[in-house]
Amino acid sequence: MPERQDATKPFEPKIVAFFCNWCTYTAADLAGIARLTYAPNGRIVRLMCSGRLDPQFVLTAFREGAEGVLIGGCHPGDCHYQEGNYKALRRYTLLKKLLQAMGIEEERVRLEWISASEGDRVQKAMNEMAAAIRKLGPLHLEPVPKPHPMKASPPEVTAVEGGTR
Amino acid sequence: MSKPKVGFYWCASCGGCEEAVVDLAEDVLKVVEAVEIAFWPVALDFKRADVEQMRDGELTVCFVNGAIRTSEQEEMARLLRQKSQMLIAFGSCSQLGGVPGLANLFDREAIFAKVYRQAPSVVNPNGVTPQEQTKVPEGTTTLPTFWDTVRTLDQTVEVDYYLPGCPPPVNLIMNALMAILQGKLPPKGSVLAPDVALCDECPRKRTKPDKLGLKEFKRPHQILIDPEKCLLAQGLLCLGPATRSGCGAPCVRGNMPCTGCLGPTSRVKDYGAKALSAMASTMDSNDEKEITVLMEQLVDPVGTFYRYSLPASLLHRRVRHAQTKGGASA
Fold it and tell me: pLDDT per residue over A19-32, tens digit each?
C-alpha cells in the first residue's frame, strides 16, 4: 500500500530511481563519498543495466505510490553490455508517449545518462526532478477496484445438480 | 440424473461472444445434450426474476462476457456470482476490460457530451441526455447508472476462470466445457488457454528473423502484405510476441497482424507495458532524434497496446486532473 502523505507537512514527492550498476549507481555512491547533498526524495533501485528496465517497473512504481521515476544509464556508446542503454532509450521514448496519453505529466519520468564519475549529475538530476514534481503535486492514481467479497464460499463444484426449473 | 445447469450473460459487450457460442456449430448439440441451459437472455426467454428464484449455487457454471460499466451490470454480476458454483469471465471485455475499457481514457461527462451532443451525426437541439429517473404519466421509469470508469468482471466479483479472446476461440470454449464436465480443471484463477506467446503457433514463425531491426512501422493498408513472411519483419505492428496463444493465429493467417485480444501470458502483469516494450525493441536506431521520429509513427500507443486491457492495466484509467476533467483532449 502506498504510504499516505502527512497532510500537516508540505508535499514531498517520492521518486523511484532505477540506476545502472555500472554508471549511475556508482555515481550516486561517489556523490555520497564526496558528501554532495541532494534531495532525499529518491529511493534507488540498482539494476544491472538500464536496458533491464521493464516498462512494467515504471508503472508499478506509480501504482505503488511513486510521484516520479528517474532512470539513470550509461552515456551512449558506453554501455557495459554494448546496447542496453539504447534499448532503454527506445522503450523510454515510447513509454513517455503512452504515459502522457494516460494523463501522467512528462516531468514525472526522466532518463539521464550519468557516468560513474559524475556524482554531481546525480545531485543535479535528483534536485531538479524533486523540484519539478513538488511543483506538480501528488499523482492521483485512482485505486484499482477489488472484487466484492462473497457472502459465503460457494459449495464444492459438482458436475451434477438436481432440481428443475 | 439431471444435467448440470449453465448460464450465459452479457454486460458491456458487442454480442460477439454470444456469436462464438453459436460458432460451436454442430458441437453445440453435444453441449445441449450434456447440460441444461438455465439462463441465456440473448438466445432464450429468461428473465432476471428466474435467476433470483434460484438457490445459491444452483448454476453449476455461468459464463459472463462483457465489461462492467453500469450499476445494472454490477448487480447482475453479483447475482450470478451468488447463484453459480463457478463463474467464468468469458472474452476479453470480461477478463481485461476489452474495447469498451478504452472508455477509461474519458469519463461519463465526456462520453455523454460526445455521444449525445457533439458527434457529427447527432441532432439534439434540446440537449437531451439519458436520465436515471424520468417521470411519465404512468409513473417513474429508471435507467441504470452509467459509471465514469469501466471495470473487469474480477474487479467486481470473484472469478473462478478466464476464457480469453475477442471472442474466445471455439476450440478453447470446447476444451473448457469438456474440462468442466469431466471435472478436470486447472487451479482456480487460471486462464483456460496455453501459456505461451502466439509466435509459438504462428504459421510464419520460421520466417521471423532473430533481429528485426525495423526502421519504419507500416499500417496494413499501406503495403501489399506477403502472405508467407513474418508480419513484424514486414514492418507491421504484430503483437504476437506479447500475446497468449491458443487461437491458432486466424488473424495472421488472414494476413492481418495480431492485435492482442488473448491478453498476456501468466508471467506478465501489465499487457500494454510488455507489448510496448516488445515493439520498442524491434526498432533499429541508436540515435535519440531518430528514435523520437520512429516512435511518433505510433500515433495512439494506448489504443494500440491496451486495445483490450486498459481497465486491467496497472494504471486502470487515465489520470484525472481537476483542470482537465472530461478526459483526453484527443
Answer: 999 999 999 999 99
- Structurally, chain A folds into a number of domains equal to 1
Q: Report yes or no on A90 lying in a domain.
A: yes
Each residue's pLDDT tens digit, B97-133:
999 999 999 999 999 999 999 999 999 999 899 999 9
Distance CA B180, CA A57 (A): 37
Same domain as B237, residue B141: no
Q: Mark whether B51 and B65 lie in a shared domain.
A: yes
- How many Å lie between the alpha carbon of B125 and the closest alpha carbon of chain A? 32
> How many angstroms separate the CA atoms of B268 and A101, rounded?
22
Q: Which residues of chain B have pLDDT under 50?
A: 325-330
Touching B: A residues 128-157, CB under 8 Å: 139-152, 154-157
Is A4 inside any structural domain?
Answer: no
Write out the residue range of the structural domain in which residue B142 sits: 109-147
- pLDDT tops 90 at residue A71: yes
Please indicate if any CB of chain B lies within 8 Å of the CB of A86: yes
What phi, psi does A155 have (nearest 5°)? Answer: -65, 160
Residue B292 lies in a domain: yes
Cα dist. B266→B94, B162, B193, B289 in Å? 17, 12, 10, 36
- A30 lies in which domain range? 15-136
CB atoms within 10 A of CB B205: 14
Please answer whether residues A23 and A73 qualify as being in contact, where contact means their C-beta atoms are separated by less than 8 angstroms. yes
Domain count for chain B: 3
Chosen for mutation from B276, B297, B323 (greatest number of chain A CBs closer than 10 Å) is: B276
Which of B108, B149, B158, B211 should we substitute to test contact with A (largest number of A Cβ atoms within 10 Å)? Answer: B158
